[in-house]
Amino acid sequence: MKAVIAEVAALRGKLHFTSLESRQEKMCIVDLDFPHDHRHPPTAEFRRFDVPDIHKFPQDMCSGTIFLVESLEELFAVCICYVDFDVENIGAVLVYKMDFSGDESQEPLGWRRV
């Protein structure tokens, strides 16, 4: 089974994206390393973490689109919420920041609303 990656953001040399597995949202990170010594091949490390679901829409809104955005060395999820599945009728825009408190090699703590 193939999974389509809809949104990707690059942050600090790593690719970040979300995937849905068994109705559980996962934050995925691909760390690409291109050694200066060209005799060694590039490497990629893949990590996957559980993150709290940010697909909770405000009252009277039941659909939306989420964009991953990198800004000033931070990772954000911008959620555009629609009224009645109508993409022309934007009811709210919510912004969340990924909390990477601590060592970056550890799991992110989750999305925090800003």
From TrEMBL:
<protein>
    <submittedName>
        <fullName>Uncharacterized protein</fullName>
    </submittedName>
</protein>
